[in-house]
Design goal:
The protein is of the alpha+beta class. The chain folds into 3 domains: about 325 residues, Neuraminidase; about 90 residues, YajQ-like, domain 2 (Alpha-Beta Plaits, 2-Layer Sandwich), CATH 3.30.70; about 60 residues, Alpha-Beta Plaits (2-Layer Sandwich). It is built from 6 helices and 33 strands.
């Protein structure tokens, strides 16, 4: 039902085999000082109770993960597990319709939404883009899929576009390569060429953000351009903060959000009149939309009915078909696997040095080559005996650098006509579908109470109202051999 466009390998994007992002320039403090007369977007809003109204969302949007507004002020949202897009009727405070990509509906860890003319783009945490048109209520639609390769560089959480609307901007939440760990990064994806454009990568120094929030991290979760300006607001759910930036690499301001009102801000959007909308995922409660209007009372305030600005509306968010009760709180964790390619690179270099200096390898022609884009190591030796010795050295170096040997997928040895031997080693960077299905079945067959397991791309999410049950599931998964070393994270 879909058309898939697959773009393979970071080398195709101009980063080369190393996967290193170009060292682009960024704004200096002197440049910032010269532009202090610019009007601040954050300064337009008062983030106190007197200037906001919040709506509780129905349970279908409990895990709301993104917002998007069209040029005609139509508001759309999505949650983080299925490619379902909801239109929200702001004046009527209700869900107007919902439509989805795929039949059955695509399941993945969706983390951002952007609407460009009549096209809807969703992005997953691994940087996979899904493109579809708008549908009627409950319609299931064809879609295009683009594997951008951004997931090898970072965990993606947030989607917007540049001012000219020529590139989508994939927001990096957490770096997966060392070169990005000191930066807040936006990865541009050309809509026309359907590829990442590394030479236009936008990077802002991380310490500029951490100097203004608690802790030593700033983990973006949503991005949107302020109307009438070239400034963007960048939300960070974990830090309960929102920053103002420009796409030439300047940080223009950071403000903290009320933790009581903003439990986990995952989406940012603007109406054409400047009204700022923040979407918060429900952590044991309903998801929320919060409206901040510039200079006037927020939408939904009605003095005649005695509603004070800033309080959550007393009546529940109205659903166009039925009212949904608030679900019981659910805890969760994610199961994944992967290899730090930088540590693999270090191990490969160490193995090369040892082979070059060891007496028993003197006069041999042995090769170890890491293809980071393909997540693969290529080995060559004069014969199978030498190849086995090279592999042994490499495995020792990998183990010392804490690279999980379970994640090495060794091919059979190939021997040429002259006796030269070759072998490839695949580096498993995710849980494949077959293994994921086996894990889901094993958890279900074990009989855990009120536990749900869902496959989300190359990861699993385990949810349950009981934290004790989650601990039991984790212990069970750790005790079995799945052919990869499991990693557990994102505890909620």
């Amino acid at each position: 039902m879909r058309t898939a466009v697959i773009l393979c390998g970071l080398g195709a994007f101009g980063w080369g085999a190393s996967g290193v992002v170009p060292n682009l320039g960024h704004a200096t403090p002197e440049a910032d000082e010269q532009r202090t007369q610019e009007v601040s977007v954050l300064a337009r809003y008062s983030f106190d109770a007197a200037r906001r109204v919040q709506w509780g969302l129905p349970n279908r949007l409990k895990e709301i993960s993104g917002l998007a507004v069209t040029s005609t002020d139509r508001l759309f949202a999505h949650n983080d597990e299925r490619a379902v897009i909801y239109e929200i009727d702001v004046p009527g405070q209700r869900i107007a319709k919902e439509f989805a990509l795929g039949d059955p509906v695509v399941r993945a860890d969706f983390e951002g939404l952007f609407v460009l003319d009549d096209r809807f783009f969703l992005v997953t945490s691994d940087g996979v883009l899904f493109e579809g048109l708008e549908g009627e209520d409950e319609e299931r639609l064809d879609y295009n899929m683009y594997v951008t390769g951004a997931g090898r560089l970072c965990e993606v959480e947030g989607l917007s576009a540049n001012v000219e609307r020529t590139h989508l901007l994939l927001v990096c939440k957490a770096a997966r390569v060392r070169e990005l760990r000191s930066w807040v990064t936006l990865l541009p994806w050309s809509i026309e060429e359907r590829r990442l454009v590394p030479e236009e990568t936008i990077r802002l120094p991380l310490d500029g953000f951490t100097d203004r929030v608690k802790g030593n991290e700033f983990s973006p979760s949503g991005l949107s351009q302020a109307p009438g300006t070239d400034h963007f607001l960048l939300a960070a759910a974990r830090q309960n903060a929102i920053a103002e930036i420009s796409l030439d690499g300047r940080l223009l301001g950071v403000t903290s959000l009320d933790k009581g009102r903003h439990q986990q801000t995952e989406g940012v959007a603007f109406l054409s009149d400047g009204t700022l909308i923040l979407a918060d995922e429900g952590t044991g409660q309903r998801g929320r939309l919060t409206f901040y209007r510039v200079g006037t009372d927020p939408p939904g305030t009605d003095a005649r009915r005695g509603r004070r600005p800033g309080r959550m509306l007393d009546s529940p968010f109205r659903d166009s078909r039925h009212h949904e009760e608030i679900m019981a709180k659910k805890n969760s964790f994610d199961v994944s696997t992967g290899i730090d390619l930088q540590e693999v690179d270090n191990a490969v270099n160490q193995a090369r040095k040892e082979i070059a200096t060891r007496y028993d390898f003197k006069g041999t022609d042995c090769i170890i080559d890491l293809d980071r884009a393909a997540s693969m190591i290529k080995l060559e030796g004069d014969d199978e005996y030498r190849l086995t010795a090279v592999l042994q050295v490499l495995r020792e170096k990998l183990a010392r650098r804490s690279v999980p040997l379970k994640n090495l997928d060794q091919s059979d040895v190939e021997t040429g006509s002259l006796g030269r031997a070759r072998q490839t080693i695949g580096l498993k960077q995710g849980i494949d579908q077959e293994t994921g299905k086996k894990m889901v079945k094993a958890v279900k067959d074990h009989g855990f109470k009120k536990v749900q397991v869902q496959i989300q791309g190359e990861e699993l999410r385990v949810t349950s109202p009981s934290r004790d049950e989650l601990q039991s599931v984790m212990a069970f998964l750790k005790g079995e051999d799945w052919g990869v070393e499991l990693q557990f994270g994102n505890y909620r």
